[in-house]
Amino acid sequence: MPGLTRPRRCYVVCTEVPPNVVGGLGRYAERLLAALRDTGVPVEVFGAVGRRLPPRTHRTGSVTLHLLPTPGQPSPETPQKAPRRDSAGPRVPVDGEVGDAAGVSPRAGDPGRGGIGALVRVGGLIWFNVRVAARILRSGRRAGAVVAVHDWMGAVAGILCRVLGRTPVVFHVHTCEHNTAPGARRTFVNAGITALENAQARLADLIVVPSAGMRDELVARGWPKDRLRVVPHGYEDPELIRLAELPGARRDRLRAEVRERYLPGGAGRLVVFAGRLSPHKGVHTLIRAAALLRGRDDLRVVLIGSGDDARVAGLIEREGVAGQVVAGYRFLDPPEVFAHFLAADVCVFPSVYEPFGLVAVEAMALGRPVVVGPGYSPEVVGEGAVRCRTGSPEELAAALSRCLDDPEHAAGLARRGAEHVRARYSWARTAEATLAAYAEVAR
Q1: Which carries the bigger pLDDT value, residue 434 or residue 115?
Q2: Pair 66, 35: CB distance under 8 Å
Q3: Is 185 found in the same domain as 256?
Q4: Helices H, strands E: what count in the chain?
Q5: Distance CA 158, CA 146 (A)
Q6: Distances 155 to 168, 197, 207, 229 between C-alpha atoms, Å
Q7: Preceding peptide of 19 cis, ω within 30°
Q8: I need a labelling partner for 248 at 20 to 30 A (CA). Which of 52, 234, 258, 442 fits?
Q9: What is the C-alpha end-to-end distance of the chain, expressed in Å?
Q10: Same domain, 65 and 201
């Protein structure tokens, strides 16, 4: 339909939606839906929750959220994170301990944990997609309507709507780490996911990605460049904005409270990492870099997150950095993570694969010096962070040392990072760019 600047209606298929926020996709959905609710464009969102809950429908502004019980999905009432502890001491996991055993639910939609569990999750997701597609198709073809599906978990619904209903479909791809990230396992399930992604990419009218780096990765994979659009994420979380605007005295008190959990009297140097403890996030490189900085008795490197817990604990022991590296093997709620960023002398995210990297953007928005790995697309952090060009511990150790030893360098980096984020990113801008992309194919 020529001349549309916005679609007339959007159907969104996204398995992880509020209040079922257990990973990056859920946080994206939470913030984007909040930005879309006042746009005036009717948006119907279909999300998956645990089977113990009845179907629910919520409406806020122009966004209507449908929660559909789905096998293999967590329930919002189920605690997703371990309770906060007063002690900051590390906990050593046992061999093979992952996910719920470490106090954290696995990433929604992750098929790679356990044979029967993986089958239940994949089967549940297929059932969810078929039900959603049926509901969208039953509503009838509407002029100017678009179906938007997020990652492979919504691709079945997208394919059905495109083939059976001839409805325009936009495919949002947030990550391909199951087959692209270094160390990704080659399994039957992952092969099936890749085939499903490729099929959806061929049928989609448009493909939306969060960074130029991911666009280039998918073009190299053979996806159509002319149908790929880059729409970056925003950064504003209400708690992040609150902390960023704290008066100086209150900000200093909060920083001191966090630092005293890890440093005697809060004196010393604090480096903070947040993310899954997996090879492609660079956590193993960070531990080896900490070993190169072993002479700094006042240094603590804090690892926030869970994942490959037993191997991380073993590497900390082998590298002899148990006195320097503090790992709790659990995720924290965003307010706690932001407080740690605020308290850090340096925030570090040494990923070798990163489609966007919201945590780095959030740390930059808080005015902290940030070091990232080669997996970050250069335009995401610009000149506002140190971007390591290799995955070597030596380069990472050198970047951390400069930030710790050169206050002028660190202050300039923090200032440029905050300016870059605030000038470039906002969820309102993301929402408008997303609707503009949908309008390209609405008919």
Answers
A1: 434
A2: no
A3: no
A4: 15, 14
A5: 10
A6: 13, 7, 12, 18
A7: yes
A8: 234
A9: 4
A10: yes
Q: Which amino acid appears at position 416 of this protein?
A: R
Q: Does 78 fall in a domain?
A: no
Residue 96 counted as domain residue:
no
Please check whether residue 99 lies inside any domain of the structure. Answer: no
DSSP-assigned letters across all residues of 203-217: H-SEEEESSHHHHHH
- CATH number of the domain at 374, please: 3.40.50.2000
Asked whether the predicted pLDDT for residue 112 surpasses 60, the reply is no
Question: 116-125, 221-230, 236-245, 396-405: lowest mean pLDDT where?
Answer: 116-125
Percent of residues, the chain, with pLDDT higher than 90: 75
User: For the segment 330-367, what is each residue's pLDDT rounded down to a tens digit?
Assistant: 999 999 999 999 999 999 999 999 999 999 999 999 99
Q: Does 268 score more than 50 pLDDT?
A: yes
- Assess whether 244 and 217 both reside in one domain: no
Q: Provide the residue range defining the domain that includes 176.
A: 9-73+108-234+427-441
Same domain flag for 193 and 329: no
Sequence-distant (6+) residues with CB within 8 A of 432 are: 39
Q: What are residue 228's DSSP bridge partners?
A: 207
How far, in Å, CA of 408 to CA of 389, rounded? Answer: 23
What's the DSSP call for residue 77? T
Q: Do 388 and 403 form a contact (C-beta atoms < 8 A)?
A: no
* pLDDT at residue 1, rounded to an integer: 47
- The amino acid at 252: D
In a domain, 189, yes or no: yes
Q: How far apart are CA 171 and CA 403, in angstroms?
A: 40
Are 256 and 115 members of one domain?
Answer: no
Q: In the structure encoding, which two tokens stand for residue 386, read together?
A: 């140190």
Strands 325-327, 299-304: parallel, antiparallel or unpaired by DSSP?
A: parallel
What is the number of structural domains in the chain? Answer: 2
Does residue 106 surpass a pLDDT of 60? Answer: no
- Which pLDDT tens digit goes with each residue over 6-25? 899 999 999 999 888 877 89
